[in-house]
Amino acid sequence: MRKFLALMALLLCFVVLFVACGDDEKATEAPTTPTACDHTYSNDCDADCNKCGEERDVAHAAEEVITAVKATCTETGLTEGKKCSVCGAVTVAQEVVPAKGHTEAVTSGKAPTCTEAGLTEGKHCSVCNEVLVERKVILATGHSIVVIEGKDATCTETGLTDGSKCSVCEVEFKAQEEIPALGHKWTEATCTAPKTCSVCGTTEGEAAGHTAVVIPAVDATCTTAGLTEGSKCSVCGEILEPQQEVVPALGHTPGEAATCTTAQTCTVCNAELAPALG
After folding, report:
1. Nearest 5 degrees, angle CA 164-CA 170-CA 174?
2. Which of 59, 117, 119, 196 is the most exposed place for a label (fewest CB within 10 A)?
3. Strand, coil or helix: what is 5?
4. Tell me: the pLDDT tens digits for 190-216?
5. Full-prediction pTM beyond 0.70?
6. Band of the pLDDT at 16, cuts 50, 70, 90?
7. What b-and-e string marks burial along 31-62, b requiring 16 or more CB atoms within 10 Å of the CB?
8. Strands 81-84 and 63-66: what pairing?
9. What is the Cβ-side half-sphere exposure of residue 240, based on CA atoms within 13 angstroms?
């Protein structure tokens, strides 16, 4: 242990002596002249030397535009700015442009139909198309059914049964069916009227005309006048030529006067003129 401590003491003496000698040599050396710095910079816009830190006056080499950002209805925008294209330093700061807000426009509604739903009127932004007021569904109205009136068939024209349809959209629910024409119901022609339909009154052809027959002349009698010859229709009995009264009644021709047992009579017609006397 003693030897080790002695050895360490000896080494310490050598170190002290070496340091002392070095300080003497530095003291005797001549002063040196500092060398000039060949300044280096990170870029053309850098003001401080990377080696010595010396500052210089510089201007930005070139500007480039920072594109403006348009404001929208809901988001702010930015004005155009500028920056150095070399170092990126901002030379003209961008300013905030306020959001424009929505521009209201009407979204047209749609009327409901019998079978399709409609929509109420809504609102949207005419710039960005954002929906501002939602349109609401209007239920379909359903059909309004009405009767389509038919018409009776006639002798010559067809008829139609009743049908049904929607009075709004005209959709047919029950089709009308054709009723055949009835046809005429003829009565035969008469002396004065042609063949005639008993339903509609339509006529066809001509009247049959009268069938004339003679009404014989009538001689005058004691009590009745005489008549000329006339004529009538043998079918309908209509008088075509009336008989004329041309000879007055002749009156009775009295026979022998009445007796107690015999009445007086006309010698022409035997009519009793006076009763028996009794």
Report:
1. 25
2. 59
3. helix
4. 999 999 999 999 999 999 999 999 999
5. no
6. low
7. eeeeeeeeeeeeeebeeebeeeeeeeeeebee
8. antiparallel
9. 17
Region of residue 102 (left: phi > 0; alpha: psi -120 to 50; beta: else)? beta
Token pair for residue 58?
């510089």
Query: 245 to each of 146, 217, 219, how far by Cα in Å?
Result: 74, 10, 10
At residue 267, the 3 state secondary structure works out as: coil
DSSP state letters, 204-247: ES------EEEE--B---SSS-EE--EEEETTT--EEE---EEE
Q: Which of 237, 155, 229, 231 is nearest to 192 (CA)?
A: 237
Rounded Cα distance between 85 and 103, Å, is 39
% of the chain beyond a pLDDT of 70:
87
Among 216, 215, 217, 222, which residue's Cα sits nearest to residue 248?
222
Rg (CA), the chain: 74
The three-state secondary structure class of 179 is: strand
- Output phi, psi for 21, to 5 deg: -65, -40
Q: What span, in angstroms and rounded, lies between the C-alpha atoms of 270 and 82?
A: 163
> In degrees to the nearest 10, what's the CA dihedral of 237, 202, 187, 190?
20
Which pairing describes strands 122-125 and 239-241: parallel, antiparallel, or unpaired?
Answer: unpaired
